[in-house]
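User: Teach me something about this protein's shape.
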Amino acid sequence: MSRMAGPFAHLRCDDGPVSLRIRVWDSESTGVSLPPELPSPGSVYAQSLPAMADGHAVRWAFFRPDPGLTAYDAESREADYWIPAASRITYGDLAGGFRAIFAWAMASEGLQFLHAAAVAEAGKAALIVGRSGSGKSSTSLACLLAGMEFLGDDHCLLDLRGAPSVHSIYAAAKLHDSQLERFPEVERLVVNPDREAPVKGVALLHPDYSGLLPASRPLAAVFVPNIGGGSRTTIEATDPATALAALAPSTLLQAASADRRALGAMARLVRSVPCYRVSLSTDRAEIAARIRTFLREEATSAAP
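Assistant: First, the predicted structure itself:
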């Protein structure tokens, strides 16, 4: 299971207290099955919903296509992550696993797990929101390869306990083969070269880009991208409702584990941070240059 640790390597800290402990195991290598008192994976997975034990201290769900079990005990701050076979680990786990566990655990700390990318320049971050295929991954990677800071291509943590800020979770990029053709620099970092289409390639960005992988940055903008196809990238103000509509559905859909306060947190975000519609050009260098200029010269970090 050491393969699942790669996306977190940039956040490694060898001292300080342990605030969350995750036990990771599979039945193929250990020969240990799930406890018989659990409902069958198929019956629970079909509902696509988390479950809670009495007292609401323990949450668990079968999420993966295999399916596998995610469980979290809020009182002990301990979690279990089980999959049937480590030999069939998915690209999603290689790029960043334990999503439900992080969503549950971080919610108790006042942080919201988001389906969003984030980049930063000059100490100011932009959150890039939208459904899958809207350009989040390609935009964030274009910015990284142009020398900007990268806080995630698909998931990150929102912090509204003061001035809005974003925290990194995973330092990995997930790209289809056609996207990798646009970013040949990261092909050597792909950890699943034996994949078959349409499975995405997973490029682990640490340690090669360790100097551009901060743990957190204050938020200055929320970007709603669309692939424009022109020669210039444009950034224009948009309303909070448009930004919320781009962010909330995919976040809530991807995380059946989402805390009931999630929608409220996202609504607060788009009301407190300026929102912009970004029409992306076909030139990745031009995209990064426009976003860099915007964050350096036009964006202002949001006030609490």
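Now, about its shape. The CA atoms of residues 109 and 159 lie 9 Å apart. The mean pLDDT is 88. If you'd like, I can walk through any region in more detail.
User: That's plenty for now, thanks!
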